[in-house]
Prior knowledge:
The chain is α+β, with helices and mostly antiparallel strands. It is built from 26 helices and 33 strands. A hairpin with a 4-residue loop joins strand 7 (about 220-230) and strand 8.
Amino acid sequence: xxxxxxxxxxxxxxxxxxxxxxxxxxxxxxxxxxxxxxxxxxxxxxxxxxxxxxxxxxxxxxxxxxxxxxxxxxxxxxxxxxxxxxxxxxxxxxxxxxxxxxxxxxxxxxxxxxxxxxxxxxxxxxxxxxxxxxxxxxxxxxxxxxxxxxxxxxxxxxxxxxxxxxxxxxxxxxxxxxxxxxxxxxxxxxxxxxxxxxxxxxxxxxxxxxxxxxxxxxxxxxxxxxxxxxxxxxxxxxxxxxxxxxxxxxxxxxxxxxxxxxxxxxxxxxxxxxxxxxxxxxxxxxxxxxxxxxxxxxxxxxxxxxxxxxxxxxxxxxxxxxxxxxxxxxxxxxxxxxxxxxxxxxxxxxxxxxxxxxxxxxxxxxxxxxxxxxxxxxxxxxxxxxxxxxxxxxxxxxxxxxxxxxxxxxxxxxxxxxxxxxxxxxxxxxxxxxxxxxxxxxxxxxxxxxxxxxxxxxxxxxxxxxxxxxxxxxxxxxxxxxxxxxxxxxxxxxxxxxxxxxxxxxxxxxxxxxxxxxxxxxxxxxxxxxxxxxxxxxxxxxxxxxxxxxxxxxxxxxxxxxxxxxxxxxxxxxxxxxxxxxxxxxxxxxxxxxxxxxxxxxxxxxxxxxxxxxxxxxxxxxxxxxxxxxxxxxxxxxxxxxxxxxxxxxxxxxxxxxxxxxxxxxxxxxxxxxxxxxxxxxxxxxxxxxxxxxxxxxxxxxxxxxxxxxxxxxxxxxxxxxxxxxxxxxxxxxxxxxxxxxxxxxxxxxxxxxxxxxxxxxxxxxxxxxxxxxxxxxxxxxxxxxxxxxxxxxxxxxxxxxxxxxxxxxxxxxxxxxxxxxxxxxxxxxxxxxxxxxxxxxxxxxxxxxxxxxxxxxxxxxxxxxxxxxxxxxxxxxxxxxxxxxxxxxxxxxxxxxxxxxxxxxxxxxxxxxxxxxxxxxxxxx
Length: 926
């Protein structure tokens, strides 16, 4: 057991520790600082070996930094390898100190087992030297005895402070080492700039930049390649050591040129301004860029920086290493800066040439603008623009495309071609969404340098190949918005479009776009005028048609003509019917067909149900339709289907839908969709109006015929009654017959019947007339009960009249009596056998009376609901009030309202049915 020597007091211990730390920071070298700490550890805690090693995470090893032994022996091990199960490795991973017992025998000692045997060590305490969770090294205290440990808390805290100090010392040492070894590009770069001030020509400037780059980076070779925009290839221009283009081509002919088409990904990265780094353990770009480049230069490590001037690619600088190499950040920064210096240091003659081109392009744009504003002929304006652009840009063709939304494509509005370009015919396909958004959002032209390697504007590639064009610039004539037109310039050879050419096309495109916009507005105004006239004509025809079949046929033809559709079909069905029918269809293309054989099921057809459930136009593909719908609707593959329901009021039941079909690439404008909605809406209301008018006329005719028949029948009955009275009078002339009292009763009754029939057939032949009468209430109720006596006896009903009043009623009592009989008879019919029917009466105020009938029968809730609402939502839809018993009750209610009273049918809380009427005692019929 090692016995530590504690200080006399805590204050003395702190004083000693402070003096040691002061001495440590006064030392000028790391070794001296570490030695001071090691000596103090020997005084604080006696042991044989104090060893400090630097940790290398990549190599998993420790390098001896300081080793102090009390025996005076030398520590001979410079680098000590670590294994995953080593005790020292475990300390590093856990980040906490640990004791290792008997290094000579422990299987976890690793290489320290041999060290312990030579230095006669047994136990050890290992401290990880950490800073912010990063292990910088290890402190090991070795003892020649067993049982070594830190016993007191003062020792543990002191060693913790000393280890923290060691971490700070090693971290500073590490930072100083990096600063000493890191390359600093600032000084050599300033020297390069000073040298370039004395050089005016481009070739010597490039040579100086390449040589300076080679010296700083220290690679095997540095080179500069230049770009030929017309033929799109890079050629070697300068190499370190003075190699010129021709010497290099003779020595390595395979590398004299790099085609942009052959190295498309590499070319695109350079055009975007990317610096490409290929090292032994890192590559900045995917294999599609890296592998062809390594094979071309046949070097394992490369760095490439683009030379850009105002967005145009002039060439690139490249540094090569024949051995795998790690490129540092300063080296990458220096190469990037050197490439930028090339463009900044372009000779004055080159800059003057660029300025002259810009001035010429400006004059060209101004000249075109003047010609545009001075000439209203579109073809003449475009011919002048084309001649000037072709001459300036040295291109082979120029086109202006205008989108045609109806045909879902582009129409060639103008084209001009040289001797190497062929004209194009027909519609151009619509662009994919990606290309459409690219034209709409990008403020600069869309450039294609080589058609074979570029996927932009893919839908137009067949036309470009037909024209034998390889390079294209496309300019949106309404930049920042959906294209109202596209200006295309084409070249039969591959070429790079520089920034000056792009700016010129953009400037000219703005001027052409203004004229195109005005021309487009004029065409739209003409189309809208024609469309408005056609629509007005169609609406007038719809309103002048009084036959439903003619209306349906006229509407289908009109919609087909207005929208130029190959198929228009009108599918209708009656309310409550299970099958729909094809009311009208217009087919202009034999590839489209519509028929109602087999039958179209309303509930089973998805198209009809989608139309019923959707408000507005449904737009879908033919492939989305189920097989049931395809049996009656046939279209070519990928056709588009539009379905619109014949909607009127939300309360009305749908009974029709119109189906439209066209090719897949057809696009409908917002204006066309709006007009379609208006026409279908007008058709729905006109059709409903004709159907409702027809139904009401049919009902009126049937009721008029029925009224005529019944009146003639009553005339005949009145004639028979009159004849019976005459015969009865003749019978009274016989002897002893005139004295019989029943003859007088029969004659009086026949006279009353004849009088009543006369009143009905004369005064109320075509409408009801007022016939006020005075009737005792009790007598009225007695007559009613006698009339229903047969029903009461048949069902053995228990009936009771609750009336204690001797009130005499005066008013339209004949009609009220019929209404009350209908209600009492209905109560008896719906009552169960041995049921109960009660009749109640009570006066209300002075001139009103209420009669109520209650029964314990059952009635459809829909009848009660319909009577409560009073008005029908849809007169074309079926209702419970169209047939008895709802029809009878509805007539009772309407007649009571006509007489100035009220009728109410309700279900009470005890499930009894209550029918009540409230009527005035005296009020004439209006």
